[in-house]
């Protein structure tokens, strides 16, 4: 494994543990974050890892992993700052952010002109699975490029949870559609709990029953159950990122002409939450923008 040199761009809540797992697996590592102190801190905490100060620091990279908030920021880093221009032909970019498929296709076209290949491989599982290297990964791209990505992907995710989605951009489409299902589930669960609280039911008891019954979901157990009814609000996933993914899903739905009124309303709900609470709020707080009363008040 250690023969490949890997660049890692984006050392946020997800990126840091993902890069740490690649370092632990023995890959020579070059890291980049817009926060110079954060990338220097990573290099200091992981002996042998180098913090990039210029695009040419990626010149020896066989693979560059990007884990950034959206496709625009990926383009700024790879095309604007110049990582893509520094890579040699045959290098591979693994785009693991939650991005708009259209941005991914534009990135792929721009890098193809330089002989650099791209796969999109967004993830699901949050910070806990990023830390353990057990992320679910949705992979789009040419077969030979997906094969070249495996040394990194098998460290970052559980091979049993790696899914081949199709052509370049399909992984990002799948990620957005997965997240819009989670966002819609949050809306439905939150609405039910608020209605129950106003009726006189205890929200925690409601969630316990839902989690033992047919209404159970990842959202009921890990978002509302573990973060809302107890007031923790600490899922580690920003509301702005969820709203962005929901909007991407809505653009995919519009492009396909699918009749999806529930998901259209989900987009409206999350856009409203984003406008009132701001992008930095934890996703689990979204309900606070929809009702004056909070869970447990009736």
UniProtKB/TrEMBL annotation:
<dbReference type="Pfam" id="PF03446">
    <property type="entry name" value="NAD_binding_2"/>
</dbReference>
<dbReference type="InterPro" id="IPR002204">
    <property type="entry name" value="3-OH-isobutyrate_DH-rel_CS"/>
</dbReference>
<feature type="active site">
    <location>
        <position position="175"/>
    </location>
</feature>
<feature type="domain" description="3-hydroxyisobutyrate dehydrogenase-like NAD-binding">
    <location>
        <begin position="169"/>
        <end position="286"/>
    </location>
</feature>
<dbReference type="Pfam" id="PF14833">
    <property type="entry name" value="NAD_binding_11"/>
</dbReference>
<protein>
    <submittedName>
        <fullName>NAD(P)-dependent oxidoreductase</fullName>
    </submittedName>
</protein>
<dbReference type="InterPro" id="IPR008927">
    <property type="entry name" value="6-PGluconate_DH-like_C_sf"/>
</dbReference>
<dbReference type="GO" id="GO:0051287">
    <property type="term" value="F:NAD binding"/>
</dbReference>
<keyword id="KW-0520">NAD</keyword>
<comment type="similarity">
    <text>Belongs to the HIBADH-related family.</text>
</comment>
<keyword id="KW-0560">Oxidoreductase</keyword>
<dbReference type="InterPro" id="IPR036291">
    <property type="entry name" value="NAD(P)-bd_dom_sf"/>
</dbReference>
<dbReference type="InterPro" id="IPR029154">
    <property type="entry name" value="HIBADH-like_NADP-bd"/>
</dbReference>
<feature type="domain" description="6-phosphogluconate dehydrogenase NADP-binding">
    <location>
        <begin position="5"/>
        <end position="158"/>
    </location>
</feature>
<dbReference type="InterPro" id="IPR006115">
    <property type="entry name" value="6PGDH_NADP-bd"/>
</dbReference>
<dbReference type="InterPro" id="IPR013328">
    <property type="entry name" value="6PGD_dom2"/>
</dbReference>
<dbReference type="GO" id="GO:0050661">
    <property type="term" value="F:NADP binding"/>
</dbReference>
<dbReference type="GO" id="GO:0016054">
    <property type="term" value="P:organic acid catabolic process"/>
</dbReference>
<dbReference type="GO" id="GO:0016616">
    <property type="term" value="F:oxidoreductase activity, acting on the CH-OH group of donors, NAD or NADP as acceptor"/>
</dbReference>
<dbReference type="InterPro" id="IPR015815">
    <property type="entry name" value="HIBADH-related"/>
</dbReference>
